[in-house]
Structures are given as C-alpha cells and as structure tokens.
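Re: [ENG-882] Designed sequences occasionally contain unexpected residues at chain ends

Forwarding the minimal case from QA. Structure tokens:
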C-alpha cells in the first residue's frame, strides 16, 4: 500500500485537529527523532540534518561540519534515536568523500546544539548499523568480506 506525502503535522488535542509543520527539506527526509525533554524534532535524510522546535526549523549541517559533503542520515540502517542517558537525540550520519571513502559520524543533538561524539572510517559500504544499550554496531560488506565495528556509547569513553 502506498500513499502521498502530506508533510509533518502536529496535534495539541489528542488528534482531533492537526496543523502542518514547516520542517526543512521535508521531501528528502528518511528519519525523524523526537526529544520529549526539549520538544525538539530532528529530521535527517539525503543531505538533510535539520531540527524543528516551536514552529521554527533550523538547518544543522553547518553546526555538524557537513555543509560541503555528500551524506545520508536516517537511511534504513542509520536511524536516529532518543538516548535517555544523554537526554539527547543521537544521529548516525554516513558521509561519502572523493575516492569512495566512507565515514560514519555519530552526533548528539540537544537544545539546538550539535556535538560530534565519534567518527569511524569505513573501507566498505555499511550494510547494517544497530544499537544496544551502550553500544553502536556497524557491519560492512564487500567482494572480499566485511568487518564488524563496535563503538561504545558510554559517556567518557
């Protein structure tokens, strides 16, 4: 079953009435995450890293140092999530550079601020990015095999 994209809407009365939100670059969004502590919505996609709060959208690419490169965020294997320990949204972003170099950068977003938590250089295409409590797993694959990377999400590590 398919449908037509109608944008992002919010309800303040339990779904009785709805109003459209102006989310930046909404036609290229692959993932959304919500921070219940700060009432912030983060939207990610192909060259999209944006936030929305109280009706105001903000392009976060410059804050993350992503304004001059090709990247994907929120693709099927890089979904953002709310991390209760940090009280922030964590955003894994896959960047592509010349020479087919790949990097996975993990950002934290809270109250309009973007922090780069970690970065992995990948020699192959990631096929899976998953998480469990305290860890981020990245699996890659290529013609000559793949690798599994483990990144600790614990504070101070």
């Amino acid at each position: 079953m398919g449908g037509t994209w109608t944008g992002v809407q919010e309800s303040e009365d339990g779904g009785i009435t709805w109003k459209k939100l102006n989310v930046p670059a909404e036609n290229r969004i692959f993932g959304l995450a919500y921070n219940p502590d700060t009432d912030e919505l983060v939207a990610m996609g192909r060259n999209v890293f944006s936030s929305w709060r109280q009706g105001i959208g903000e392009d976060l690419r410059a804050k993350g140092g992503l304004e001059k490169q090709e990247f994907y965020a929120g693709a099927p294997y890089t979904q953002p999530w709310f991390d209760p320990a940090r009280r922030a949204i964590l955003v894994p972003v896959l960047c592509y550079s010349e020479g087919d170099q790949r990097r996975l950068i993990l950002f934290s977003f809270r109250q309009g601020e973007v922090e780069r938590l970690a970065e992995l250089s990948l020699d192959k295409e990631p096929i899976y990015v998953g998480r469990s409590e305290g860890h981020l797993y990245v699996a890659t694959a290529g013609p000559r095999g793949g690798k599994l990377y483990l990144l600790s999400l614990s504070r101070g590590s």
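QA comment: On inspection the terminal residues look reasonable. DSSP finds no helices and 14 strands in the chain. Proposing we downgrade this to a documentation issue.
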